[in-house]
Target: Ribulosamine/erythrulosamine 3-kinase potentially
Amino acid sequence: MTGGRAEGPAGGVAAGAVEELVGVGVTGVHGIGASVFEVDLDGGGVVVAKFHAAAGKAGVEAHGLRWLAEPGAVAVPEVRGVDGHWLVIDQVEPGAPSAAAAAELGRGLARLHAAGAGAFGEGPRESWIGNLPMACVVGQRWPEWFAEHRIRPYLRLAVDRRALSPAQAAPVEAVCARIEEVAGPAEPPARLHGDLWNGNVLWDRHDRPWLIDPAAHGGHRESDLAMLALFGCPHLDRVLAAYDEAAPLAAGWRDRVALHQLFPLLVHVVLFGAGYAGQTAAAARRVLAT
Model:
């Protein structure tokens, strides 16, 4: 909006939240998504304000952004303010993805993961993946932790909601039963973004990648890379090659991509319905075939 405070009542609420949390006047508000606003600040500068209906979710996202920023490995927007429902962060000036930026993303993710976590599942106990609760229960062994706290909860939800048939659920259950066999070599807990699909990677005008909207927790580093591949990522081959050069992946990692994709696929089944059920069952069958 030009020359006014806000566009509509929702924008007015966003303007008030930003003024309170950042302590700067607002000259304009522009809706860019569901409950997400670009906010022009008095004196220059732009921030992004996000409203979370679930109490505490804004704080969890802020915690995740700060945790990912600690190692200085990949650029993360600075948290400018947060309360029970609103999160205000710096805006990233958009650019186009390039091969150079993709390689930097790969190297940055390697550094981020190497920063580590205290345990698998480290993170705010009440957390979210998309709009679903995601319990961060700690564990010391990844295979059993992944099966118990990342696959089975969403498998049960998908079946209970009849978005996944018993026949489609069966290979997923079989993967859980064989998790020790298919998990690959042991890895230390990595500092994960946790929801690393392409939409949560931004590319600025200076060939710099940024991470947003995390579901940050301690996990297996291959999980972030597998999710980045799930829905496509510009120059993905460059991302993976740069990562593997900086921090070589364990033998057979490509065969384990489907295993790590089971978690986000099940989340999609629960959130969006049976349209993802066939893809989920097929991924489980690929795991069992390795």
Q: What stands out?
A: The radius of gyration is 20 Å. The CA atoms of residues 230 and 252 lie 18 Å apart. The longest strand covers residues 26-33.
